[in-house]
Amino acid sequence: MANEQTYQALAVDTLGQRLGGVEAVARRVGGDPAQWQIREVGDGNLNLVFIVTGSTGSVVVKQALPYVRMVGESWPLPLYRAHFEYYALVRQAKRAPGVAPEVYHFDKPQALIVMEYLHPHVILRRKLISGERVARLGEAIGEFCARTAFRGSELSMASPDKKADVGLFSGNVAIPAITESLVFTDPYYGAEMNRHTPELSPVVDELRRNARLKAKVQRLLMKFTANTETMLHGDLHSGSIMATDTSVRVIDPEFSQYGPMAFDLGMAVANFFMAYFSQPAHRKEGDLEEYQAWILSVITDCFTRFDEEFRHLWQTERTGILFPRALFEEQGNSADDACDALLDEIREDALAYCGIEMHRRVLSLAHNADFEEIEDTALRAKLEARNVLMGQALIMEPEAYCDLNALAELAKTFNQKAVM
Fold this sequence. Notes:
This protein is α+β, with helices and mostly antiparallel strands.
């Protein structure tokens, strides 16, 4: 298959024949490719995903389609996005070892990646909807965000290597354009592909009349488009995290690009807040308060571990051109205050990006199952309204909630609000 230049979408009945001759795949799956068990499991918005099982083991095969799967061929999308997902997976493996799935094979013309089958891991969003807990969840995500943020920046990387990487990822035009529209722009006006729960309309209409809010969001979009601090996952939500009760892995970095250090952290925390606000529809009264408290502890742990790991890397791996030791330690100065100031800036921006993500997942095109699976639309709108209004508060005054106790209290306040 590696010699095939004409792109062909995979199918269950052709995959074994097409990949059976790829040694890296055949060795891990084992047996006769004609006897492989192949399941198409892609439930995402963009790609084909298969689990392939043989006598030796299993792999995941992911192939990009030349259009947005959830919309259809009316929204074409370049196949090169698979190239950048591969580049991101390779870099994540070095910058945050053991978190991203291992890549076994990459076929550029066919826009496909063969990678580690994560089992018995399941999508984190499903666990949160079901009321399950994951040990050290917040710590794992905070650590992942800190390691990828720091090690993908010129705090750590040699400047020529970082600039070359930025140049490489600058070729990924179509995917960032989706983020720029669906995340930062479409939620705040009546874009064609938007949708929201009908009963939520009064809250949505008021939000879209808020010019100060929209101006703040656009300033954050300016940071996102102009700032190449580090390589981002780019779409770090609870559907891009897989977990068991004790293990956390991060998948699907196809939205990867270079951008602000705060972005991934903010996206991840937003999805934990949406899980939090949706819980009254998923939990019985006796379990609700305790489980919501656990989710808030995950958010606190995420920020706390991010800071701890970032400070550790600051002390041990600050080898790039930024804040060089020649200016600080080698002149008898501490760089701790500079680190503190940078972390304060990252947290403030992360909270603002968090608010934007809380909006886009109920007002734009791609919604979260946390809310979407609530069949009672009046209840769904009530819970979504709490989420939207807290998101607005974070965008308007992120500096007011950088204290983690204040952030948790804000969530508890909105969780009790009769906003509709």
